[in-house]
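[scheduler] slot 2 assigned
[scheduler] job type: sequence-to-structure, two independent chains
[scheduler] chain ordering preserved from manifest
[runner] begin chain α
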Amino acid sequence: MKKVATRFAPSPTGPLHIGGIRTALFNWLFSKKQKGNFYLRIEDTDQERSKEEYKKQIIQSLKWIGINYDGEEYIQSKKIDDHIKVANELLKSGNAYKCYCSNEEIDEQKKRSKQKKIPYIYDRKWRNKNDADAPKDIKPVIRFKSKIEGSTILKDLVQGDVQIENNKIEDFVILRNDGTPTYNLSATVDDHQMNMTHIIRGDDHKINTFKQIQIYEAMKWELPFFAHIPLIHTIEGKKLSKRDKASTLDDYSKIGIIPDALRNYLLRLGWSFKDKEIFTLDESIRHFNIEGIGKSPSKLDMSRILSMNEHYIKNINENELFDQFIEYCKLFKKEIKSNKQDKIKKSLTFLKNKAKTLEDIFNNGQYIITDEINFNNDDIKLIDDKAKKVISRFSTEFEKLEKLSRETLEPIVNKLIKSNNTNFKGVGQPLRIVLTGSKFGPGIYDIIISLGKKEVEKRLKNKIVLQN
């Protein structure tokens, strides 16, 4: 039996779409489960739109989410001669023909189809004509001679048996009049030469699959298995496109979604195993199967992604969380001085509370990260004479402390509550404002301990607060 081989074949014409990442993930998991190989093929034959920056982004995106492909990237544009050779073989065997229709003729056919509100299918004008009748001033395209009679059944591993009448498949172009191959020819030749055993891709490729099966059969090549995954829709139920917000991987990494959390979410988006929700990488490989893929489109739910990310933030090892946080800050130029990093690391236990993203942790730790506090004007207004008195008396008592801990701070706070005839908020809120610039934030004991004695003493004397 052939060793299982799958591939992910994106075009480098834009940032990698979240649906593409899920397709790559399913292919990768299937191959790893079967002890097979997973390859990355860059389909860059569209020279005008293909860009090196997008190729790099695709490779980086796969690496970021933990999908490692086998061998080097397979670059489609380097194989064009092989594609052209197959087109000529199909021409020679009578499975393809030269079509001399002008662009104007094709446009007119498309126009008539549109007026009749029927799908455009080329009228096969040159299918049985002799080359001797060919006009001298038109360079021909080469069209595949599709089956006209009967039907074809696709034994889809996800969708089940899918049948189509052969006359619905037009005689599609396999070589343009400039001599360049089209997608269906290139993809089929590449899949054959790469010894692909399973083609797992979005179900918007189903019509392409029927075309490609005919090329396989005409060349007498062994057919791979096909599996078509339902597309990802927006929460409103529309097809997700690259123009939608949160459609590319960058949209998630820049707000601080953890790679494992997004991978876990995408795994569960249209696939299930019993009632299990959280999967380690090893569990993902061990349990993944094509039978678990649903037949209906899935809806991308940002609130669910954030919930999954929050779970990972709370449950992964804090050393690992810190490493990911620092990497995130470096990637998105959120500078944290080296002398502040240790304070952040020691404070992660409470900074990660209520944090749904790494960006939330960065925002929660702003009072540690910045040297200059930015005060919220509305919060400054809360510092009345009574609040200033609380800050002043706390400052006096705080300076006497030799050891900084919750146990040494609580008596001071309790004494201030009693002497000022107030409650915990009456003491904690003014202290939080003077120390962080906002009435919102971590618990007051956590703030004080994380800042350290010298920094707290300095901030307690802030003139902006005390002289407002």
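[runner] end chain α
[runner] begin chain β
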Amino acid sequence: MPDVVSGSSVGALVGGCHLAGQLDTLEGWARGLTRLKIVSYLDLRLRNGGGLIGGNRLVAEMRRHLGSTRIEDLPCPFVATATDLLSGHEVWLQRGDLVDALRASISLPGVFPPASADGRWLVDGALVNPVPVSCCRALGAQVVIAVNLAADVPGKARRPGTNLPTAAGFDLTDLLDGRTPDGPAISPMGALAKRIFRRDYDGPSVFGVMVSALGIITDRITRSRLAGEPPDVQVAPRLGHVGLLEFDRADECIREGEAAVERAMPDIVDALAVFGGAPREPHPA
């Protein structure tokens, strides 16, 4: 068990579920996702609400497993980072309802509506601190092992035969038109939804532009923050070929995560030996 856990966006979700004893549940849920199930969670909000997707179905799923767990009751200090939409300040969520904190940290601007907390509107913490090494340092961590999911962003998820980003990793137009690769047909969700997700010209969709732009911003912020606040060890899964909404490829992503840890294991052993007082072990041949 680590002494401190901190995360932004999906990192906060994984870290919070781990400390709440629900990591296996999260893994099972992710491995069971299909493209049809992904769409079932996309409660589109085409009028008001501050985001294309309401997020209520995902929050209900988190609430079903995490209940009313409070951050203070977790077995070690936990920080979910978020961004104050008005001031742009970095916000550390260290107390209160765990699901509410996770909901704020994963609120990707334009995709999910901002979360309201203490009179502030909060969005995804990755906008200001994608890999929150600083949180762990501030809470007294001697050895920081960081997982950087943006390390392999360049060239991310391109539409076959083009230089256009897919954003989702699969064609949402097929789903909106009622064509699904692994389930029954879905009724059309309206002309506006199709305009958001589909391409009727030789260029990316509105959704593709928005998500790809956010990915570029996050990548640049990650590089800058890690240059000034480097972790002792960085675990960098090679996930640049996986699209943002390709949750149906969880098996592949988990395998790559395990491989990334194996690649970083010599550095982890050395860091623990030097800073953590653990005995140094020879690296495997």
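[runner] end chain β
[qc] chain β: Confidence is low (pLDDT under 50) at residues 159-181, 183-193.
[scheduler] slot 2 released
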